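Morning. Coffee machine broken again, so started the prediction first thing and wrote up yesterday's gels while waiting. Chain of 275 residues, entered below exactly as on the submission form.
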Amino acid sequence: MAKSRRRSRASRALGRPATSPPQGVARSRDEVDALAASGALLAHVHDVLAGEITPGVTTGRLDEIAEELIREGGGVPAFKGYQGFPASICPSMNDEVVHAIPGDVTLRDGDLLSLDCGVVLDGWVSDSARSYAVGDVGDDVRRLIEVTRASLDCGIAACTVGNHIGDIGAAVQAEVEAAGFSVIESLVGHGVGRSMHEPPQVPNYGVAGTGAELFEGLVIAIEPMVNAGGPDVQLGPDGWTITTRDGSLSAHWEHTVAVTAAGPRVLTASALKSA
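Came back before lunch.
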């Protein structure tokens, strides 16, 4: 679940970080393993949901499936009740960027669907998002999804001890802008652990070598939110759903990642080779 970079009308919907040092918290190996267990359950939820995404299904049904899977796995939906959010997933479609509320909306052939979900397992929070092509889609949808996922991979690769927050953002931004797309500057990634939103903020843009230094044990959610058009967004009348201001398509990919001495460890990676 993305965090607002600047205080705005959207800040109520996006929540506030827990009280922690501004550079984040160094988690022990056991704590990272506990976060990985939470992430593995979340990855399973995403893997199952991926098989349910077809024209005709409602976003409300996807939410029901997600909550059932999370609770069957011994977890609790991290989003449900968070700052008043009413559901377990955020199913954002087409020009919706993040934080859409599931309900009676039916998926249609050609839609772009981004699913954001979070899990709390034994008190540890994991957060991830994936974007999907629904049915037969145009090349514009597929390319936006592919570039957004590639930009996430670039950001993850920059998560090494001694690098900086700016290295992550610069890597994401370079991949996105080389494709002619825009990163959203008002929504960012974040630290994650005992709470949904912890320091540090992790923008999807930046200058390499700047910002807080990355250290072993830091756990962050990297989440490129990429628009096919301009970078500006707006908050909808429900007080939650954020859309592109120009009506262009948007895609969203996210992983919870631990910085380790051996390199980045993706805690929400799918066990399926095709995911």
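Residues 6-19 have pLDDT under 50 and may be disordered. Going to sketch it on the whiteboard this afternoon.
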